[in-house]
């Protein structure tokens, strides 16, 4: 085991150019943790927010960005019985994924699905944990319900479309171009709307209203989402690309018995994340093993080109997931 590793650190808050290749000591697994030699890491919008100084890592997490990855277990902390050295895993990380080695709670790792390569597997945890916990656990989506997900061509969106379709929901989505909308339809969306040309409120209301909406846009989408919901519908907010503050008429929420909720994944307890992992192992991993659902891959960058990966995720042109090749 080497004593040092290559990693990408945030030299100061700022744009993609502040990401810098460096050397760091190889971390050691604490009680209940595993040490993973990463092959790939996933790139996500929270990484870019952390880089910009807008999303501080938890006090106990690495200051290195990176919330998901895939590789091989190379060491076990005390108390770990779920894994053995040599196992191939993908894992939800508290941070530190832009590096050759990373530690994480053993219960936040899952096996690499059958027939899936490390690049795809590295792009599973952050989006699948987020979608499963918010759409199915918090949002309680059921077969036959009308489900609207914004940003359908994003990593979250492509995952939500596939999982909701696989579990029998009717999927509506928005995206920023006709080409992106076509991808969404191919993934299982019944209706995909170019938000530059169509009013999602009108279209969804004409179908009876959404029983559940998953939104990461925020801003003026929030009152429009309220209008688009069916009576007793649920809105789950997971991000605010257009801001968290808006004027909202709560009379509509009361009169139509609506539920407005939301969550962020990273600050949740290790136990909460382990419970999400347990449900996904039972409900979602069989679909991944069978090839029923899979991550949609956009592009790959070398670890030292992390700045270009961040530029890609921020330019809005990507469809699906962006991966960093660590080795």
UniProtKB/TrEMBL annotation:
Q: Which GO terms describe its molecular function?
A: NADPH binding; oxidoreductase activity, acting on NAD(P)H
Report the protein name in the record: NAD(P)H-quinone oxidoreductase
Top-rank taxon: Bacteria
Does Metal-binding appear among the keywords? no
Question: Carries keyword Oxidoreductase?
Answer: yes
User: Pfam families under this entry?
Assistant: ADH_N, ADH_zinc_N
Cite the entry's keywords alphabetically. NADP, Oxidoreductase
Task: Show where the Enoyl reductase (ER) domain sits.
Answer: 14-324
